[in-house]
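tl;dr need the bound structure. longer version: we got a ligand (heme C) that a collaborator sent over and nobodys looked at where it sits. i said id run it. heres the input, straight from their email, havent touched it
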Amino acid sequence: MFTRKSAEWFCASACVALAAAGCAAQRSADAPQAAYGGGKLNLGTAPGSAEMARYFSYPADGRALPPGSGTYADGAKVYQAKCVACHGAKLEGTKLGDKLIGGRGTLVNNSPAKAPVKTVESYWPYATTLFDYVKRAMPFNAPGSLSDQELYAVVAYILGEANIVAKNEVINASTLPKVQMPNRNGFVSPDPRPDVP
Ligand code: HEC
């Protein structure tokens, strides 16, 4: 709990840390780097391959997507076990998780009565983002827990339910980047608004 006492303690230790940092800055200006172990601060450890595997980002062209593959049928099982509770049996969303499909064609319309419905199907421009996002963030209660095989499968399932790919399509590192998302051309670049630099 953040009590007055802990606030005082925090302030006291932060002030000491700041004073030490100020002191270090002063010294490094005066003394040669060699005085600090060959110019290194000797903090932390070199990351191993398991740790590095947690840092990933898959661009639209699918570079560095991992090996593995999945189908709609495999993905249906993953979805039922790990996603349905929050995203609903028809991917329609619940109080706990977003609607994942539907809403195509609702983003651009001039009717104030028709709110845009943003989903993976209607909004996301790249299918690789779906893999990247689910790998990084889902299931919401256990992010990072799915294998790449499960990920390809659940992605195939969502894309199949959205009628973006055929239900017999195999999704893998080479097929995923080729998927044409419905809103692929709904984004403009560079930004044409005059007030945006
Ligand atoms: C415990 C509830 C929960 C579970 C289980 C869960 N999700 Fe989610 N999901 C969420 C929530 C909450 C969000 C919104 C997160 C946010 O906006 O930061 C979300 C967002 C998403 C989105 C982004 C939707 C959008 O349009 O922004 C996708 C895709 C998704 N989840 C897929 C999955 C998949 C696939 C699974 C199963 C492997 C799964 N989720 C399991 C709660 C859950």
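gonna send this back to them w/ a short note. The pocket of heme C is lined by residues 82-83, 85-87, 96-98, 100, 119-120, 130, 133-134, 138-141, 146, 154 (CB under 6 Å).
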